[in-house]
């Protein structure tokens, strides 16, 4: 099985074969999740702790459900962003939790790099559920699975990621994953929200939706991350919707069978027209949520296997 990671901190360190392995394992969990009995023993006896220092609906609930379906003991820690300070507090929290012998730690934190730091302090597998503007690896993996199932492949596709790229960990993880799998990624949005340095990732940049969406296979919309903006990045939401909000007219520039994606939470009438979001012939937004549970099951299953092997190897050395 080609998955050698101890933690899932980002897409950046993953080899394309490891991405394919996660998606293949996730496919099996998609089937399981559609059965009446959704249980497996992959994480039986293991303890999973979810620490969300930032709000979450989909990600937290799907990690919880994923752990429970795989038989882990799952604990959700109630974390309020306001009560947390970076540095010692985070490390102290990590050390406290570590003393309780968790096997899997799922962490979301408002600071980029905080989850990597935490992973260095604990001896269990750490999964990044989103760190600041940095990475959100399980989101990119669930998006990849959704695309692969809808398009029948995950290479040589034209994919437009649109909107607030600058503040989006979803965009960063996605463009790295899609690039590794040899797709062509375009970033579309106002120059204030699409920094030119993203060209380093090998993507093309557009500030016009009609041009940016021309003949693409996938249109991925992003929320305006107002909580990460310090200052005015857009003139008004009304004008933003007029120029960059996905509606039927703008979508008409994409391929006739192009799919529409959004990681949620979505702001109807800001980055996307409600009728497009609800169009079952184009929108795969609900499938993304379904794939989210399966991908998180796969990621935790694979990390738990590696953890078990590492512990067995350590025990062997001690004998
Ligand atoms: C995203 C996030 O939190 O980064 N949401 C998610 O995980 N589904 C995107 C967002 O908040 O806009």
UniProtKB/TrEMBL annotation:
Catalytic activity, as annotated: carbamoyl phosphate + L-aspartate = N-carbamoyl-L-aspartate + phosphate + H(+)
Keyword Transferase among record annotations: yes
Key words, A-Z: Pyrimidine biosynthesis, Transferase
Residues the record lists as binding carbamoyl phosphate: 58-59, 108, 136, 139, 264-265
GO biological process: 'de novo' pyrimidine nucleobase biosynthetic process; 'de novo' UMP biosynthetic process; amino acid metabolic process
Positions annotated to bind L-aspartate: 86, 169, 223
Pfam family, one: OTCace
Domain annotation Aspartate/ornithine carbamoyltransferase carbamoyl-P binding: ranges: 6-148
One GO molecular-function entry: aspartate carbamoyltransferase activity
Top EC class, one word: transferase
Keyword Nuclease in record: no
GO cellular component, one term: cytosol
EC number: 2.1.3.2
Pathway(s) of this molecule: Pyrimidine metabolism; UMP biosynthesis via de novo pathway; (S)-dihydroorotate from bicarbonate: step 2/3
Occurrences of domain Aspartate/ornithine carbamoyltransferase Asp/Orn-binding (ranges): 157-302
Self-association state and partner proteins as the record states: Heterododecamer (2C3:3R2) of six catalytic PyrB chains organized as two trimers (C3), and six regulatory PyrI chains organized as three dimers (R2).
Family stated for the protein in its record: Belongs to the aspartate/ornithine carbamoyltransferase superfamily. ATCase family.
Main function: Reversibly catalyzes the transfer of the carbamoyl group from carbamoyl phosphate (CP) to the N(epsilon) atom of ornithine (ORN) to produce L-citrulline. Catalyzes the condensation of carbamoyl phosphate and aspartate to form carbamoyl aspartate and inorganic phosphate, the committed step in the de novo pyrimidine nucleotide biosynthesis pathway.
Protein name: Aspartate carbamoyltransferase
Organism: Celeribacter halophilus
